[in-house]
Request: fold
Amino acid sequence: MQIEYLEVIPLDLKLEQTYSGGTYKVDSRPTIVTRVYLSNGIVGETYGGDEFHTQMEIVSVIRDHLDPLLRGEDVRDHQRLWSKLFNINLDLGNRGLHQLDMHPRGILLQAISAVDNALWDARGKLYGVPVYKLLGGARDRVPVISIGGYYPVDDTDPCEAIAQEVDHVRAAGCMGIKMKVGRIELEADLERVRAARKAGGRDFILTVDSNQGWAPHDAIRFCVALEKLDLNVRWIEEPLKWWDQTDGLRLLASKTNIPINVGQGEISGRACRDLITKGDVNILNLDCTLCGGITEWQRVADMASLMNVEMAHHEEPQLAIHLIAGNPHGLFVEIFADRRRDPLLWMLPENFPIIENGYMKAPDAPGLGITLNQDVIAKFRIA
Ligand SMILES: [Mg+2]
Reply:
């Protein structure tokens, strides 16, 4: 059961158009394929991450630092191996304003995530069990929502655009949408949410995401006004700017009954602990490609369960399906119903995903249950 070596391959695919969210724009789809080779011939393989600027730094950390640490280790010891990776003392350059501590920590945690997730695929293959069963097997299918509701880049009316998109998301088999808010005036955003509810009907799952767009009092104004419209919004996601998590979130939570969902901006389990105990949040959408992988995500999920907090997952359905299916307090898996936004999901896996009647089926093959298309990897790999 020994780990022989790791292999890591960065990919990037230019998107057909630019997508504009609350605080950012996206025009390409990068990701990293990670493989772990075991002495008995098993190969753990997965992909994850959506990081362009530091992609090569993450790849270098895996190649130069994490691979040597794992060679010869027993793949089954997931707690011990995770601690070994997490406690590495890595020097990624001088400490200075251009190199704040957050930057190298984020790179290291993404590198650990890529490796940890590939190790889980190898473990599942070794045991002959899908990863969601190893994590708890709470269910074998998970409701799907679509990330969308980007602001139109042309002069389409924003309310018409979101209504059309809701129709498309429904037609694509999703139960709901997560729509962007926070880039335009509050009243105009509220009109968009109202238009989405009208188009989706009563049972359509509707969530809103400002991508850390607001100061606390702006978020309070939005949530109080939104609540008055009685649109049954499932959650408000990442409402506050990066500099006022915890205390700011607690203030917002004291003013609104709309559930607050945060966590995709965090890279550690302990930060998630603080979001619950100090920020009073209701849902964590921690991302296992950012936080240290499936091992740490599951640790956070266990903590959250004991504190009556639900678990979501930011994007990455190829991994999230196992985490959400494995846990009874898991909520939805997220895809982009607009296939042009994440073409890799439909090209890279050879046998995924199956979506029926609003649910994604958990893969039942051992490990993560997804075979990656080697031609697609060859086509989009970065030299
Ligand atoms: Mg988000």
